[in-house]
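Hi, here's the filled form for the chain we discussed.

Project: internal
Contact: R.S.
Residues: 258
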Amino acid sequence: MKITRHSILMGWVGAVALTAALAACSTQVAERKPRQALFIGVDVSGSFQQSGYFDDAMTFLSYYIYGHLNELGGLAPPRELFVGSIGGEDSAEPKAFHPIHDFTGKSIPEIEEQLRSWFVPMDSFTDFNPFFQQVARIAKERHLTLSPITVMLVSDGVPDAPMRAGETGSLYEKIDLAPLEYLSRNLTIRLAYASPKVGENWRKEIPRQRVRLWAVEGEVMKGWSQQVAPEVVDPAGQERLWKWVRDNVDYRVRSISR
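And the returned structure, exactly as it came back:
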């Protein structure tokens, strides 16, 4: 077969067209990637306040929420966002979860002001189970079970729930992740501000099968503020901070870590 300049040109055009089509398909697939549902639990117990991390956690959380909502530094924008408290005078009492609409369009200082007004530390129980049950209920009611789900716990991670008569064993063993186990194909719990020992207790003593866990110690979490450049006014320009969040808090857990 005789190869002409025209046939070479047409072949080149066809290759370019195929490459463009494949790139478009890749873009469409990326766009169709489901966005995560983000649930944040704030520990309002006296023990978390006494740990010395509560104030730092409220400020960090305001940056964290703002960064995700505005897709800064590669942070994934949530499909839905709910923020509620962990603990209270009555451990079994349902708590209000503030939806994404309460944070959209707000600045970092405005978000922090809201968080501090809603979540006031008190001498109360730290029972994680009612919080997990509410997460499961909301996810089902809002049809979020097909989305990746992240449950972010801002807490010292120390359970303090009333023991029933005759109950024995570690309080960590009483933390029930069953409502979350089959809630989504991709569900990750992130525990921020726990001590190394508490993080280890979460990994080893809490029964779980599919739920992924990532714990960031309190001493590590304190390092976020050192990444904030005071001369940079626009939060979008805080590149070091958002990279730190991606690498340390939003680290992708590929399998169960024990």
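Let me know if anything looks off before we file it.
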